[in-house]
Amino acid sequence: MANVENPEAEGMEASDASFVDGDDGDDSSPSKKGSLAELLKDPSMLAAIQAKIRSRDQIQAHTEYMRSLPRPVKRRIKALKKLQLESTNIEAKFFMELHNLEIKYQALYKDQYDMRSKIVNAEHEPNDEECKWSLDNEEEELSNELKDKVNVGDTKDDVKGVPEFWFKVLKNVSLLDEMIHEQDEPVLKHLTDIKYEVTNDPAGFKLEFFFSPNDYFTNSVLTKTYELKCEPEEDDPFSFEGPEIIRCRGCPIDWKKGKNVTVRVVKKKQKHKGHGGVRMVTKTIPTDSFFNFFDPPEVKDDESDEDQQQILSADFEFRGSVLGLYRRIMRVQKTWQSKDPEESKDDKAFILAEARRLFKQNKSLKDRGDIIASIKEGEARLELAIHYQNPHPRPVNLPPHSLATGWTKMKAEERKRRLGKPVYVKSLDEVS
């Protein structure tokens, strides 16, 4: 499991490995001293070390306190723990019933969502009765002269459906807009629908992104599936806070030749070691893209439990709660034309502050190799934005603080201290 008491320590340990591996064990080694000095200059590294020391002190103080209690008090505390465990088991049943309730109501939403898709994609033209909207009084307030001007200017009768509806929905959310890169836009204009399905065996949910035929890939639908666990851990039952994502699976994207927007081609000059000649070498390197969302880290069957948890933690801690994606979009799509901002300035500042911390932590964890290499800055920004703007209370209780699984257990002062000063961050390189 992730380090609940001190998640920053994981980043510290991963960074430690970058200068320990391959060392001959001589602490006086100049390279080791230099690497250590560089690490200690990193504010996030210092914070992680300090947090680890504080955590050890707290554990020691707690242990000493428990030892000092009279035997009758210790006995009563055991009774309280037993009651708490019973309450936790009841809470787990509650969340499972809530999950089953979502499955029940999923069927009730189906007709409305199907009709919306038909209207957006020009498969159904709504009649006068379907177009009645009681809150729209604009037409009644217009003068006849203004009505005529509006009608004269409205000559695009050949427009079908609602063009680029879902693309505009995604772009209307400021932080999703930042995540969408220039090369993604023409692809996302082919997005025709987004669906969310709750599953029961195993418990989880699935996101489906539907696309019209396009010049970029042959897939008609891209999926992301998540598996949930809704029961306390036997060895740590009091850490249970609701359903948690234990596994995720993306899907392969069948890119057409030269159309893969998740990579870019770089040409470099390479000098031959023998005769000194120069040649041009072409390399394909990964790049930030919305579509990296569908390529999460894979957990192999031969991975140890600890390795599996590290991979999942690296993915989920940076991605945040993906369950909020569909619901967030559902809320935004209702108001994107009104230009009514849904995020308050305080909310936005809070999200940006968390994004800043996220990218700083990502910097210190870059030596985790393939695990971190698969987690793109844009994905982190997307999932962070989704998590903090999720209008539903705890549908899946991932940590409110993307990098700290112990966030809910921190005091308000500690949370405030960790947030830091909110700033706009466009790229990882801007974070120092």
UniProtKB/TrEMBL annotation:
Residues 321-383 form the Complex 1 LYR protein domain. It holds the Pfam family NAP. Residues 1-37 are annotated as: Disordered. InterPro entries: Complex1_LYR_dom, Complex1_LYR_LYRM1, NAP-like_sf, NAP_family. Gene3D superfamilies: 1.20.5.1500, Nucleosome assembly protein. SUPFAM superfamilies: NAP-like (SSF143113). GO terms for cellular component: nucleus. One of its GO terms (biological process) is nucleosome assembly. Belongs to the nucleosome assembly protein (NAP) family. This is Complex 1 LYR protein domain-containing protein.
